[in-house]
Structures are given as C-alpha cells and as structure tokens.
Design a protein that fits this description.
Length: 961
C-alpha cells in the first residue's frame, strides 16, 4: 500500500491518541468556502495514490445504524442560506453546510448536514439520485445560543431521527441501505472548474470525497453551496441508535463508551491537530484543522463552549461494559439490535437545562434492560360505555392510515378540536405528500385548510378566529367547485377560490414529524363527499350521523387498543403511532366531554349536496396576492406537506407546503399548510413560503415561497407563498367592533394601523420594478419578534417580499437562477418606535438599512418581477401588528452606504415609481402621490370590513408642512 504524505504527515492512522491540553475550547468557522480552507478534515481511513479508501477508520459509519451528536452555535446574519423544501430531494447542499460527507455527482452512500432558513436540514442518499431524502427541523436554531443536536439513522429501513436539545425535532423513513464510504473506489473526476482544489492543484479530482468535512462544503463548488459560520464543539459518533424518546439535554461533554467510534472534544486550544479520544478499536480517527489564514490557527479556537466552567472530560478511556445483549423498552418505537453491547454513561450528569423542562431521554442501547416505559400511557381500557376521545401530547403523537376512498371532488372534513396550548401551528388532519392532497391545520391557532391544486400549487383558506383553549370547538371545511370555506362552531370564515384539488396518498391525524404535533384532544372525525355547509349553521349537539354521503366516520370510541375504526366500515382503520407496537408516539384514550355522545340520531345539516348561492363562489382577482411566507422562501415550512416514508408521514411541515416557514419569503406565509410547512417560502414557513419559513420570505412562508414560506423556502416551508384571494363575491361583515375609519381632522399627518390579525392593503403591481430599486417606508411595531409581511410584490414563483423575521428586517427575492434568497439586517426593530427601513438593490446585490445603518451587502442574483402589491400581511403568512407610514418605491438603488435617517416626508423625483403618503385620513383607498402607480385598496374587498387597516394620526417624521 502506498501511504500518502498529506496534510503535513503520514496519513495512515497512528496508534496513539493525539494529546489534548487541559483547556476547554470549541472550534470557530467563518464560512469562507474556498481553497480547501476554514474547515476540519477527518479522513475515513487510509488512502492509496488514487485517493481510494484502502481501510476504513471507525469513523466510517453507515453500514448499519449510527448516531451523530454535536453542539453548535450560530447567527442568522452569518448563515443566510434560504429555507429549502424537504423530502425526496438533495436540497441540504444549498444550506450553510456544517458537516459534509458528500460524494461528488450522483454517487450514493453519502450524507450531510446544513442550516437553511434557520432550520436544520439533513440529507441522506444511500443509492443514486432516486434515493435522495432530506429531513428538516422546525426550530430556528440561528439564535446565537448553544444547541445540542443528535442525528440517527437505521440502515435496515432507512428511518431517520433528528433530536434538538433533547426533543424530537423530526422523524421520517427515508431509503434503506448502506451509507458507509466504499472501499477501493476512486473519487469522482468531473474536471475543472469542479474540484479544482487550491490553486488548481487537484486538477478536477474530488480529493475530499473520502473525508468528513466540518464547517464547510467539501468541494468548494461555489457560493450557491455556502459553508457554515459559527462554533462547533464535542462531536460524538456512535455505531448504535442511542435515543428512542425525548431526553434530557446533556450538561457535560459526551462520554466515551463501547459504542463510541469517534469523539472530538476540540479542546486542543492551539495548533491544527484534531484528536479522536474515543479509544475505538481500529482508531483513532484523527483529523486536521485547515485555517482560513495559513499564517495562524489561533482565530479558530474559542473559549466559548456549551459547558461553561464544567470540568473537562479527559482523553482517558472510560471502561466499557461487558457485551450483555440490550433489551429495548416494550413501547419504544426505535429498538436497537437486541445484541448490541453498550455501556450507559455512568459518569455523565445529564441535568436538564433549568429553564427547559423536557422529558428525559431513554437511551436505546445500554447493557441494562430498559424499563417498560411506564411514563407513557399504556392505553388501559376505560370503563365500557363511555364516550371517548384521543389526547395528543404535542410532541410526537400521531394516527396514521391509508387514504380514504372518494376524496376526489366536493367534500367536507369536520371534527371536534380541544387545544391545550395557545397559538399552535400544527397538523390536525392531512391527506398529502409533497405534491398532492390537502392539510387541515392550526396556523397560529387559526383553522386553515391548505390544498395542492392542479394548476396553481399550494393555496389556503383560513378562519379569522383562533380556537379557544381547553374548550371543544367544532371545525369544518366545505369544498365544492373550486371554492372552500372554513367554519368554526358553525360560524363561516371567508369563502375562497382555491381551484381544483389533487388527491393525497394517506391519512395523518394529530401531526407530522418535522411539521408540528397537536397538543390537546380530538374527537369524531367525519369525511364526506359533499359540501355539507354553505352558510352559517348551529354547531352539532350530539354525535354526527352516518348517511349516504359519509366516506368515513371515526368516532374514537374504542377506549383501548392500538387502532380506531371507521363506523361505516368502508374506510381504512387508523393505527396509533409510527408502528403497530405500543410506543411513545401513541395518542391516549380519554373520556370525552365533547357533545359527541350517542349514535348521531340528531342529524347534522342535510347531507344533500348544497348549492352555493349564485354569487358565493369567490373568484380571486387576477392579482390575488400569493404573499410570500414570512420567513423562508422554502416552500414549507412547518406547514408543508412533506410526508416521508409510508409510515412516517412527515407530511407538510408546520413549515411548508412546504411553503416556507415563518422566516420564509413572506410570500410563503407564517401559516402554510402545516403539513405543508408551519414554517416553509414555502413552501415554507411557520409556516410557508413554507418555501421561505419563519425566516423565509413570507411569500415563502413561516416556513417558504410557497415555494418560499415563513418557516421554510419550504420550497421549504414553517411556507409556501400562497395567493391571497383579492376578491370575494360576498362582502365581509361590517364588523362594528372594528374601527370604521371615521375621517380624522383635516390637515393632520396620517398613518395606517394594522391589527396583526387580518388587516391588509392590496393592489396591482407598480410598473418599473424590474431592475435596480429601493423600497423604503416607516415602521412602528407594537409586538415583539414578529415574523410577518410588511410589503410584498410576489406570487408563488416570482417577485419579492420585505418582511420582519423574528423582528428583523429581511428582504426575500425570487431570483431567476437560484430560487428564493434573502438578506437581513442584524438588529431587531424597537417596539412602539418609528424606524425608517430601506432596501437598496442593484446589479444582483442588496443591502437592508435601518435608520440609515447598513446591514451586510449580499449577492442575491437577478430578481424576478411579481404580479401584485400586498402591504401589512398576507392570509396564511402573518399579519403585521403596528403602524406603517410613507412607502416609496424607486427605480434606483438610493442608498449604498450609511446615511442620516430622513427627518421629514420623502420627496418625489424622476426616480420615484410610487409614493404612498397614507395621508387621506378616511376612505377605503390610498393613492400614489405621483399619480403613476395603482391605488391601493383596504382589505380583501372594496367594502368596509374587519380586514381594513385604520387611519390614525402619525407621529412619524413624515410631515411636509
């Protein structure tokens, strides 16, 4: 064997562990992404002259099951990659890459970890490109706090788990098969410019293929594959699945035990040697730090660690336990191989963080049989004859089954819902995968129905009222001839034209891994093949009836067992949890207090198909906003249906259809079908553009444009920018509880107040927003940490969205080449204070300014042009709470450096495309002062309604008198 003298020494594994000093340090990366610098390189074994692997180091996991655990800390400003859609794709490569065990091109047996739109995204590819699968988290981790992450995979069935700070963040069944790096295979040779290496020295050979790279994209393939910037500490890799339930977040470094195959403390504190202290047979799997500045490595060592002043665990090996076969808990969903010898960590205190009481974790593999998990309900039969319901824990409880036949056209979905937690963005009932079906959700506590239409992608209709806590509410959705209405306790929300729905492959009830789980009780779910309700009705007072139009009626009255049956006998039986075995993910039988007793003798509104009034169908105007998700272009988000494997629907995330999440391009909205992401730009977003997500362009949505979403370019998506119906043919109620916009005294400087619920301004596109431009306005938020749309010119696939993502000004744009991209200002806007906000864009680069102070300038690419204007929010994607004043749009980049914030009203000049001063003081419209741009209209219709912003006297410095 030829042993290569690489990285300053012989690469064959030395027999001893590199000595570590007594300092407690972590590693700092800077996201350079070039010239094979600013990263740690961990070889997967010994290499020959052609860079083929001749012997595997213990680090080369993936043949069977494994767990990767690490600590990381990062900020949104340094990791701006937009949210991405999850599921059957390879989109993790577009995030800020933290761990890269990729292989160039379509070769399988590879995986990687990144952060996109603020959410973790883990990609796994056991075979060719037909086995691409990505698993996305739902939590924004770019909060400059230390987080513990555990990734797990089982090769036999492809099951994936993601635990964040001890809590199950996402779970799915991907594709089975070996993930380990193969022996005797030479790396890809795509030729330059690919895999050029430092100074072209690699000559197009992907020499980094047989390495795990930390902190960077291993091939330096270009800026569209960005590298991680932040801190990393205490990486442990194990050859078992360690966790089968939520666990206490560690409070000390990971211990080494018999199943630890690599352990990197990063406590060297100096130099470039990275030592493996696992003591694993065949190791150590030592590595090398490649500094971004060849002159010194000092800037990569930090004393900021997740353990503070805790004692540092030394490199002395912990005695391993004898090889006693392990026994898994009878109700633990993920059972490790029964004969895997493991040692529980006897010396590692795992005290939960004092401020975050989370369920403690049950290690799946220890040398002592696990308890039978008495902490989880065992579904003991309740007294016979009782009216039952199902209680869901808000963590991982789920019901699942195959599709109910007949849900192909007109239909009604109805059930009783009793939430125990406020403002949930979760899946209630979903029949969906990434590309078909529907998801009935709570988006910020409001009942919302997301559908994948055959022509326009993910669309939604929502009820304006949040469900009350600890109270049973009857929730129904009626759909016919392309129009849908959501009813809560018989009270109708707006009727919205969605289009022709598509048919999903399965049923998920109570949540979806990666997209939000419901906390509360559910009772009596009925699915019908007619639109039962076309106008307000009296909510049912007894059990729903079976009739000729009933496709399925699940009464949830068994009271025990692992399944619940359809009372009609026609539809599939539903199963508790992700498997048929008793597990932590099973809902619990409880006595019901909902008015569902009896056999439905009291009939509900006629089952005869109802004919909507001739003027009920509300066809959205041609310019219906499909506003981006509040925080992520990825379509999806917490609310995007991205249903993973056959049994583990990770149906749209609470962040996407996958419309982005709450930080998704605001076209995705904070509320994209939570099966579509809660947060997918969509497709995004808390929701979507669940393609964006909570940090995705709200067109993307609180999960992604829906393709973004407020929680994920669920494109990515918390979701997907879904269109805001601009026109309904039924005037909204005059809503006397809302201000009626009585004219204020003449001569006053006015502004517009938005309620944070449904207030909106809308209009057609402002001509001229095709290249260089500036968007500026005055903003006065009254609620902290909002993820909402301020101003958007977008639909699912074009335009831009200016949003607040967690209170920070963020501009999401749909580019012509790379999809949803974003640039953000690092400072959150102050409350109850006027701030001047401006975005300047030119030659593909954009900068956000707050009160004249510049954020980072970011290369976004060539923007696309949206079809409409939305101001103050977007249905399904988050509405602004506060006041707005004086919006000016220009065809030049007015600001290229810090400036003094304006002290009086903005001026009209030759570069002004529109200037809305909001000074009318009364009425249902507001005009452009230049007379060139379209007039904006209050609310979703021209009639006075609850969704109209309110005229107020302004205290912003916008007066011109």
């Amino acid at each position: 064997m030829i042993v290569l003298p690489l990285l300053g020494g012989i690469f064959a594994m030395p027999p001893s562990i590199i000595a570590q000093d007594s300092a407690s340090t972590s590693l700092r990366f800077y996201g350079s992404g070039r010239d094979d610098l600013d990263r740690v390189k961990l070889p997967l074994g010994d290499l020959d002259a052609s860079f083929a692997l001749t012997r595997s180091a213990p680090l080369n996991v993936g043949v069977d099951e494994f767990t990767i655990e690490l600590w990381f800390k990062a900020s949104a400003v340094e990791n701006p990659a937009p949210a991405q859609a999850c599921g059957s794709n390879n989109n993790w490569i577009y995030g800020n890459i933290l761990l890269d065990r990729d292989r160039f091109n379509d070769r399988g047996r590879k995986f990687g970890l990144a952060i996109a739109g603020g959410r973790l995204i883990w990609g796994v590819v056991p075979g060719g490109d037909e086995t691409f699968f990505t698993l996305c988290g739902t939590t924004n981790v770019l909060d400059e706090q230390w987080h513990h992450l555990a990734l797990q995979r089982r090769a036999s069935d492809g099951r994936l788990w993601m635990f964040l700070d001890g809590r199950l963040e996402a779970e799915a069944i991907g594709f089975s098969g070996d993930l380990s790096y193969p022996l005797g295979v030479t790396p890809s040779v795509p030729g330059e410019p690919w895999c050029a290496g430092p100074g072209g020295s690699w000559e197009g050979v992907c020499r980094n293929d047989p390495y795990v790279i930390l902190g960077a994209e291993k091939h330096d393939a270009g800026p569209e594959y960005p590298s991680f910037s932040g801190l990393l500490d205490d990486l442990r890799i194990s050859n078992i699945v360690r966790y089968g339930a939520n666990f206490t977040r560690p409070s000390a470094p990971h211990p080494a035990d018999a199943n630890t195959v690599a352990l990197y403390r990063f406590d060297e504190g100096v130099g470039t040697s990275i030592g493996d202290s696992s003591g694993a047979a065949g190791g150590p799997s030592n590595g090398t730090l490649i500094p971004r500045n060849s002159a010194t490595s000092a800037e990569h060592w930090s004393t900021d660690t997740p353990f503070g002043s805790l004692p540092i665990i030394t490199t002395t090996l912990t005695p391993t336990a004898t090889n006693t076969p392990t026994q898994s808990a009878t109700n633990t969903p993920t059972t490790p191989a029964t004969n895997t010898p493991t040692t529980p960590a006897t010396n590692t205190p795992t005290t939960p963080a004092t401020s975050t009481p989370t369920p403690t974790s049950v290690p799946l593999a220890t040398s002592t049989p696990l308890p039978t998990s008495t902490a989880f309900p065992t579904n003991t039969p309740l007294p016979a004859g009782t009216n039952f319901a199902l209680a869901f824990d808000g963590l991982i409880d789920i019901l699942r089954g195959s599709q109910v036949p007949g849900l192909t056209g007109a239909q009604t979905i109805e059930l009783w819902v009793n939430p125990t937690t406020a403002n949930q963005t979760v899946v209630l009932v979903a029949s969906t995968d990434d590309t078909t079906g529907w998801s009935l959700e709570l988006n910020n506590g409001r009942a919302t129905w997301w559908v994948m239409t055959s022509a326009t992608g993910w669309r939604s209709v929502a009820h304006p009222t949040a469900l009350p806590l600890n109270t049973w509410s009857h929730l129904a959705v009626s759909y016919s001839n392309g129009n849908a209405t959501v009813f809560v306790n018989g009270t109708a929300g707006p009727t919205t034209a969605l289009g022709t729905l598509t048919v999903g492959p399965q049923m998920l009830i109570g949540g979806a891994p990666g997209y939000g789980f419901f906390a509360g009780q559910l009772d009596e779910l009925r699915l019908s093949n007619v639109a039962r309700y076309s106008s307000p009705f009296t909510r049912p007072s007894s059990g729903l009836s079976l009739d000729a139009n009933t496709l399925a009626l699940y009464r949830f009255n068994e009271g025990s067992g692992q399944t619940t049956a359809d009372a009609s006998g026609l539809a599939p039986t539903l199963t508790f949890g992700a498997s048929s075995a008793v597990g932590a993910d099973d809902p619990t039988w409880v006595n019901s207090t909902a008015p569902t007793g009896g056999d439905g003798a009291v009939s509900t509104p006629t089952s005869t198909p109802t004919t909507p009034a001739t003027n009920t169908p509300t066809t959205p105007a041609t310019n219906t906003p499909t506003t981006p998700a509040t925080n992520t272009p990825t379509t999806p988000a917490t609310n995007t249906p991205t249903t993973p494997a056959t049994n583990t629907p990770t149906t749209p995330a609470t962040n996407t259809p996958t419309t982005p999440a709450t930080n998704t391009p605001t076209t995705p909205a904070t509320n994209t079908p939570t099966t579509p992401a809660t947060n997918t730009p969509t497709t995004p977003a808390t929701n979507t553009p669940t393609t964006p997500a909570t940090n995705t362009p709200t067109t993307p949505a609180t999960n992604t444009p829906t393709t973004p979403a407020t929680n994920t370019p669920t494109t990515p998506a918390t979701n997907t920018p879904t269109s805001v119906p601009l026109a309904t043919n039924t005037p909204l109620p005059t809503s006397t509880a809302f201000p009626t916009n009585t004219p204020l005294p003449a001569g006053t400087n006015f502004a517009l107040a938005f309620d944070g619920l449904i207030d909106i301004l809308r209009g057609s596109q402002v001509p001229g927003l095709t290249g260089a431009q500036t968007i500026e306005l005055w903003v006065n938020p009254t609620t902290a940490n909002q993820t909402v749309v301020l101003v958007a010119s977008t639909d699912d696939t074009t335009g831009w969205s200016l949003e607040l993502n967690n209170g920070r000004a963020t501009w999401w744009v749909m580019t012509s080449a790379t999809g949803w991209r974003s640039v953000a200002h690092p400072t959150a806007l102050p409350l109850n204070t006027w701030s001047h906000l401006a975005v300047s864009y030119s030659n593909g680069n954009a900068t956000v300014f707050v009160n004249g102070t510049a954020g980072p300038t970011t290369a976004l690419g060539t923007l696309t042009v949206g079809p409409q204007m939305l101001i103050g929010g977007a249905p399904g994607y988050g509405f602004f709470a506060g006041q707005l004043d004086e919006l000016r749009l220009s065809n030049v980049a007015r600001y290229s450096s810090p400036f003094t914030r304006p002290s009086s009203g903005l001026s009209l000049d030759a570069n002004t495309l529109a200037l809305y001063r909001f000074n009318e003081g009364s009425g249902q419209t507001t005009a452009d002062a230049s007379g060139l741009a379209p007039t904006l209209t209050f609310g979703a219709s021209s009639a006075v309604g609850a969704d109209d912003p309110t005229w107020v006297n302004s205290t912003a410095p916008t007066s011109r008198e």
